[in-house]
Amino acid sequence: MPCIKILSSLEKRTKLFATNLISMQYPPVQNYINGVFVDANTSRSINVVSPLDGKELSKVPMSTSVDLNYAVAAAKDAFPKWSKMPIKERVQVFFRYKFLLENNLRELAHLVHEENGKTMDEAIAEIEKCVELTEFACSLPQLITGELLEVSKGVECRTEHVPLGVVASIVPFNFPSMVPNWTIPNAIALGNCMILKPSEKVPISAGKIAELLKEAGLPDGVFNVVHGGVEIVEAICDHPDIQAVSFVGSTKIAKIVYQRATQHYKRCLALGGAKNHLMVMPDAIPSMTAQNVAASMSGCAGQRCMAASAMVAVGETDHIIQKIVEEAKKIVPGKNLGAVISRESKDKIEQYITEAESQGATVLLDGRGVKVEGKENGTYVGPTVIDHVKPGMSVAKEEIFGPVISIMRTKTVDEAIAIENSNPYGNAASVFTQNGGVARYIIERASAGMIGVNVGVPVPREPFSFGGWNESKFGVGDITGKSSIEFWTKLKKSTVKWNPEAGVNWMS
Ligand code: NAD
Fold first, then answer.
1. What is the pLDDT of residues 60-74, one digit of tens each?
2. What is the per-residue pLDDT across 455-491, written as a single tens digit (0 to 9) for each?
């Protein structure tokens, strides 16, 4: 790679990193190609700003297709050796990586906290989820066994899962460590070599992930990171040597990526945005429901694709709504509520609230105009509960991605289901009730991939897979769990006859 100036060895970078942790400033972000941190082939960069207090943390390069080409070449070179290694050997790297994640949990969480703005507790939970995802990858040898059957006398058919080659993972800002780890352990343990394209808003965690994978013994070139924006995403979709693209982000971009990648005959799984509905019945347990609703709408400052964003209150539910407001009041920006990603995002969320109010909705708890003492440049929005929202309003229909819940009132369960069904997304839906029949009725009718009963954030845990429906996901299968095996591998079918006396079977 003659054009790339190698700035620092891994050791030097780690030292720099540690020094800068104290001053809360990080060295400029570099790409990670063929086991080395390298400068991008560009002078263009953008600032990485902490939403917690508006401080500049680092700069991230806007890499070009030249950088991507280096990364793909390194991954392509590494593929033959890595893919031929038995999977039981490949997963040994991830056993070590899991322990490294645990040993470095606080540092990893601190990075997520600083660059994304979520609370330290939420960041710790994010890294704990990375551990769980890696544990699943370690179990892949147990799950990937093919099939073998004597299909006619002396003739056997056999299937095996074969890795695809070089694959790419494009990720969003809201989980700087977890979403990359949805794809890295499974895709790589299954024998692929990967290019990760982090979000330019939160690029720092990816460097630490690369360091830990190297320390875990992952051979150079198997995992690479190319930072940047639109140009890199487009180059990934177009690159002839990339076999598969996974994308997680907004629906608007998921559609673009899905279309562009499949236009180039690549396998693509593109997860998009969400508008998750909670349906609250009058018999729901008020305290439990209120705690779950408040936690779901405000966790990670509402910046979760599984966040409760709309609530449909069926029948007499005033007592539950009152409790939700009481619970939401306990959520304090800068304490147990993190910041939203940017000034632009804060303004947009506040505009949604203002618009709903002007259209006749009642703001029961107002998170606009919040300032956190000592962090005046942080981008915080307080928990917001909006009641008497009509289904046609923007707050009822659009993904707000902030700590805001929009409550609509209906008389019947069927009206609630009709509202849920009419939204174009389909990530998650939940029902709060003590009636098993009503719960089952809603499970069968909600148009979403992940359903909760008395659960505010119904994320399926490993080994169950994660993935929505409708405009929340484009492509077949899910991104995690057993379903990911189908995405990251292709099936080889062999028919074998060693015994000449077996004769000619009916097909041949
Ligand atoms: P985003 O769509 O803006 O960005 C995602 C990725 O796409 C980033 O890496 C970004 O650099 C790239 N990108 C942005 N604009 C692009 C363009 N015009 N062309 C090509 N690439 C482009 O999403 P975000 O704001 O980073 O993340 C928040 C969104 O992600 C929300 O909508 C949220 O619901 C969604 N999300 C969905 C899931 C899920 O599982 N369905 C999980 C996490 C986040």
1. 999 999 999 999 999
2. 999 999 999 999 999 999 999 999 999 999 999 999 9
Q: Ligand 1 centroid vs 110 CA: distance in angstroms?
A: 22
What are residue 426's phi and psi, to 5 degrees? -175, 40
Residue 273 CB coordination number (10 Å): 21
Q: Which of 248, 304, 295 is nearest to 276 (CA)?
A: 304
Residues with CB under 6 A from ligand 1: 170-174, 179, 197, 199-200, 229-230, 233, 248-250, 253, 256, 271-274, 305, 399, 401, 427, 468, 472
3-state SS string for 432-479: ECCCHHHHHHHHHHCCCCEEEECCCCCCCCCCCCCCCCHHHEECCCCC
Span from the CA of 432 to the centroid of ligand 1 (angstroms): 30
Find out whether 401 and 351 touch, Cβ atoms under 8 Å.
no
Contact status, residue 395 vs residue 361, Cβ threshold 8 Å: yes
- Residues annotated as catalytic are 305
Gap between the Cα atoms of 464 and 467, Å rounded? 10
Can you list the residues of the chain whose pLDDT is less than 50?
Answer: 1-24
Of 392, 394, 433, 388, nearest to 407 by C-alpha is 388
Task: Report CA(249)–ligand 1 centroid distance (Å).
Answer: 3
Tell me: the pLDDT tens digits for 327-353?
999 999 999 999 999 999 999 999 999
CB 448 within 8 A of CB 427: yes
Residue 276, beta-bridge partner list: 308
Residue 60: strand, helix, or coil: strand
Peptide bond preceding 86 in cis form (omega within 30 of 0): no
Strand arrangement of the beta sheet that strand 223-225 belongs to: 36-38, 31-33, 223-225, 193-197, 166-170, 242-248, 267-271, 473-474
CB atoms within 10 A of CB 326: 14
CA-CA distance, 298 to 384, in Å (whole number)?
Answer: 9
In this structure, the residue with its CA closest to atom 19 of ligand 1 is: 230
The end-to-end CA distance of the chain, in Å, is 51
